[in-house]
Here is the input.
Amino acid sequence: MSDPVSDSPRAAGGPAAGFVPDAVSAALPALFISDLHLSEDSPATVAAFIDFLKGPARDAGSLFILGDLLEYWAGDDDLGAPFNRRICAALSELAERGVLVFFMTGNRDLLAGEDFALAAGARLLADPTPVSFGSDAAPLLLSHGDALCTDDLAYQAYRRQVRDPAWQAGFLAQPLAARKAFIESLRLKSEAAKQEKAMDIMDVNAAAVAELLRSHGYPTLIHGHTHRPARHEHLVEGRRCVRWVLADWKGSATWLSYDGIRLVPHDGGGH
Ligand SMILES: [Mn+2]
Here is the structure.
């Protein structure tokens, strides 16, 4: 039987360095941020973000936002709110300067969709997404990270519900004001629940991490969500994989940069 794959030009020459099927292509240097939780209640973090976009981000080839950019997102019909307009305009300005802006939703802003992306000049990414940078640069695997926190059974049940397209359609059919009120009540409940949960339940599960790395060919993984910035090494079936956890922003900029060789954490100072 003939194998159609072996007849393709790509297979004939072997995979290119850093080639990953279905990977998004991006430009170097690349910057990675997550968990800014921007809202009108956090003016220092908003200012740090605007400064970051006008500063370090302008020298980047790509900016990756790996979820929870916003403290909440009630739906793309809330794009008219002055605060949301300001954030999207700042991102869009960066994109217009030629920086590729990629956006993956987190659990806080999972309802950000195509209209948000259009307003922000961003390209939406699925979770997880492999990214290739061409040439000899090693590809990276990107995720928000909440899907890896499988020890928190209550959270995973909630996550399945809010990621269900039927649930989302029903939610988005409600008036904007009702959605905002619901989200606010959810935030208060979630804060209370977090106080009661054991710390390790809210971190990633090692088996979930290993399975993700295995299913993507043992790449380097970058994620956020847990607010536990670190560089971890995992041995998965004898393969050494690196997992970077992004820091959350608390009034000052923090990001990871990638030049195609090394990943380096940065703190940009704040207000
Ligand atoms: Mn999160």
Observations:
- The chain has a mean pLDDT of 91.
- The helical segments are 9-13, 43-54, 82-96, 114-120, 153-162, 165-172, 176-196, 206-215.
